[in-house]
Amino acid sequence: MTRDPRVTVCAAEATAGPVRELVEPRRVQLGESTEVRRLLPSLGRRMVGAWCFVDHYGPDDVAAEPGMQVAPHPHVGLQTVSWLLSGEVHHRDSLGSSVLVRPGELGLMTAGRGIAHSEQSPDPHTPILHGAQLWVALPGEERAVAPRFEHHANLPVLIEPGLRATVLLGELGGALSPGRVHSPLLGVDVALAAGTARTLPLEPDFEHAVLTVGGAPEIDGREVGPGTLLYLGSGRRELPVAAGPESRFLLLGGVPFAEQLVMWWNFVGRSGEEIAEARATWQEEAARRAGGRFGEVPGYEGDPLSAPELPPTPLRPRGRER
After folding, report:
1. Domain that holds residue 173
2. How does pLDDT run across 64-115, given as a tens digit for each residue?
3. Does residue 122 lie in a domain region?
4. In 3D, which of 185, 193, 207, 204 has the Cα closest to residue 241?
5. pTM higher than 0.85, yes or no?
6. Tell me, what CATH number does 98's domain have?
7. ω before 304 within 30° of 0 (cis)?
8. What is the DSSP letter of 304?
9. I want to staple 115 with a disulfide (CB 3.0 to 4.6 A). Which of 86, 106, 147, 230 is the partner?
């Protein structure tokens, strides 16, 4: 969920070959008490495959704090991927899902034509909160599918000396995630022991990026500090990775997403009219606290979020140009 209402145009900008392009985060307030580092979309890099939104938060000491507190809010046209490194988050949605997501477990919500959900640290909760929230844009023929929520507590793990790779989405080295995707995609949590050097297999038709969530691994010979993203371009069949101190990163990839998109608030669409319609519907349903396109989130105590005002300039999809 994002509270930043600025218009963001997501468009494929894959390179013709490998690069090493560092993306620095910007800090954004999420909900009542969580500050995140936003890596995608950024001024210079809008997408990696179908990944169009990446937030990294923590590690935060929330022992004396409420932790994550995000009231019910809507989504359309995307999948949310919740990935925890420390702590736990209670997911509720308008389908009736009520699931506590823990580290190493995949929370995968497909918004499709419309869904609402909330995210809260439980009470009581563990003292450290650390994780990533990512969005995947749904392709045109799939973006109005029926909403669903998947919780996968047992994900495939690839283990080599000094390396442990948990496959969130897609496939790596024969390990295939049970999470359902709608375009060729890869998401892997890679942990490297101190002093480890390995080589990861890659799909050359994918573009890839690495988000460091712990330590400072060397990715293709370049050190990538915590909370930063290294865009790697496409055309790679393998990726050398190494760690001095113990390190951890998310490897993201996918076939370059060629469709034109408009992303505004919590919606991914193809036109300004589509976004405006979704906003109006949410506002009307939230005001009367009644179900409909987005539905109600049972079990949440409190009011749903109100959508920000639409910008004065028209929301228009664009392609590769900035």
Report:
1. 18-254
2. 999 999 999 999 999 999 999 999 999 999 999 999 999 999 999 999 999 9
3. yes
4. 193
5. yes
6. 2.60.120.10
7. no
8. P
9. 147
